Amino acid sequence: MGLILLYLAVAGLPLLLSWASNTPPRSFSNEIASGLGLVAFAMILVQFVLSERFRTVSSGLGLDRTIRFHQLMARTALAFALLHPFAYHWLPGPDRPWDPTRQLTLTSDFPSLITGILAFVLLPAFLLAAINHDALGYKYERWRLLHGLGALLIVALLLHHALSAGRYSADPRMVWMWSIMAALAVFSLIAVYGLKPAYQRSHPWRVSAIARLAPHQWGLTITPDGHAGLAYKAGQFVWLNIGHSPFSLYENPFSISSGPSSGADMSFIIKELGDCTSHFDQVKVGDRSYIDGPHGTLTVDGRPEPGIALIAGGVGIAPLLGILRDLVQTGDPRQAVLIYANRTRDQIVFEDEIADLSGVEGTQVFHILQEPPEGWTGLTGVVDSALLDRVFSDDRLSSWVFVLCGPPRMMTSVEEVLMACAVSADRILSERFQYD
Ligand SMILES: Cc1cc2nc3c(=O)[nH]c(=O)nc-3n(C[C@H](O)[C@H](O)[C@H](O)COP(=O)(O)OP(=O)(O)OC[C@H]3O[C@@H](n4cnc5c(N)ncnc54)[C@H](O)[C@@H]3O)c2cc1C
């Protein structure tokens, strides 16, 4: 809530300063037009902070919510920016000497307007490219670089346009405000692409184990190299870079599948998907790696509920296994149930260890398969209301916390079932491995 209020305050700051600038009032439509432009620019500048995975932001909202908010605000800012020139009651002509406060006229000075026109054309193209980046066929890393550079270009154009054509932005206080906000946006890029990597370089890790766990799934363990490791909570994730310079863009988010109580090593379960994860057969023990983290809010530390329901689909087991391992290792008194859904039996990872964990008092495990092999005695089908009814009594549904991680369709349907069973939203924690 605090972050949302801060966001509104920052996005609304140019309106407040414009109002305080004591310039003579204009027609309503021109005030609206200026307001739209000012708010759109402020929102675009805040986008840098929203997209740069600062822990204060992503730990408050959760990374997937932060990214969704970033996407939603990008669309809103675009709508404001596109409406901005059309809302003006346009009186073309040169700046009149008798109207220095531009109460009655708008600037038609070409150099001031051209940067706004360029930004006006680039913004929708930029947003469309971001929405369709998968379909465009760019490697994720290349897309990320282009996205960052494109955003910087648009901000430079908008800054020039606001300072040279804007009525309110000409006010010295506004010039300061835009300069500080633009500097913070640029600093957020420097922090993520310069300062964080520099820190990572002084805190390297080494691959200490790598093994194929199941078809298309790898188990990876890294060990801190010359430092104490990372303070994290079970269920969180890091950006992991294996074998590349910390200053490169080659890093991917992976949930930690070990618990902090197991020591300084960190483990991951990684599913082959694209150009990075499909080359895990080339990762060797001793390879240098770097991490940025911890991030994420998928954690049950400090939760008051008496029981924890962990519902995993496929590789979504990674953070939930981290939580379960940690609960058992620390002798946590809360009860825990793990439901682990897969399509086929050979996709189950750490089957023996999970069987051992289910033997611990207060812990239950249910495997469910969509395509069970002959002789399978576990559950079959998908995680649906019948299964949840069977596993969770009314008492559990009304008092436990539910932690979900799996394919987007499964998460959406389980969330709907849980809500239908009167599980309140604050007792459902989830992490999506894909933003769109
Ligand atoms: C919070 C979180 C936790 C995750 N935990 C796990 C896990 O424990 N195990 C697991 O197997 N997978 C996990 N994933 C998914 C994993 O990050 C992607 O499968 C992996 O990045 C794909 O990379 P690739 O280069 O092989 O595939 P690509 O084909 O390059 O990418 C496929 C898709 O993965 C996403 N992606 C790729 N690179 C990045 C990046 N640097 N940052 C953000 N998204 C990216 C994009 O949506 C992209 O379109 C997690 C994702 C998130 C967001």
UniProtKB/TrEMBL annotation:
<dbReference type="InterPro" id="IPR017938">
    <property type="entry name" value="Riboflavin_synthase-like_b-brl"/>
</dbReference>
<feature type="domain" description="FAD-binding FR-type">
    <location>
        <begin position="200"/>
        <end position="301"/>
    </location>
</feature>
<dbReference type="GO" id="GO:0016491">
    <property type="term" value="F:oxidoreductase activity"/>
</dbReference>
<dbReference type="InterPro" id="IPR001709">
    <property type="entry name" value="Flavoprot_Pyr_Nucl_cyt_Rdtase"/>
</dbReference>
<keyword id="KW-1133">Transmembrane helix</keyword>
<dbReference type="Pfam" id="PF01794">
    <property type="entry name" value="Ferric_reduct"/>
</dbReference>
<feature type="transmembrane region" description="Helical">
    <location>
        <begin position="175"/>
        <end position="195"/>
    </location>
</feature>
<protein>
    <submittedName>
        <fullName>Ferric reductase</fullName>
    </submittedName>
</protein>
<dbReference type="InterPro" id="IPR013130">
    <property type="entry name" value="Fe3_Rdtase_TM_dom"/>
</dbReference>
<feature type="transmembrane region" description="Helical">
    <location>
        <begin position="143"/>
        <end position="163"/>
    </location>
</feature>
<dbReference type="InterPro" id="IPR001433">
    <property type="entry name" value="OxRdtase_FAD/NAD-bd"/>
</dbReference>
<dbReference type="InterPro" id="IPR039261">
    <property type="entry name" value="FNR_nucleotide-bd"/>
</dbReference>
<feature type="transmembrane region" description="Helical">
    <location>
        <begin position="32"/>
        <end position="51"/>
    </location>
</feature>
<dbReference type="Pfam" id="PF00175">
    <property type="entry name" value="NAD_binding_1"/>
</dbReference>
<feature type="transmembrane region" description="Helical">
    <location>
        <begin position="72"/>
        <end position="90"/>
    </location>
</feature>
<keyword id="KW-0472">Membrane</keyword>
<feature type="transmembrane region" description="Helical">
    <location>
        <begin position="110"/>
        <end position="131"/>
    </location>
</feature>
<keyword id="KW-0812">Transmembrane</keyword>
<dbReference type="InterPro" id="IPR017927">
    <property type="entry name" value="FAD-bd_FR_type"/>
</dbReference>
<dbReference type="InterPro" id="IPR050415">
    <property type="entry name" value="MRET"/>
</dbReference>
<dbReference type="GO" id="GO:0016020">
    <property type="term" value="C:membrane"/>
</dbReference>
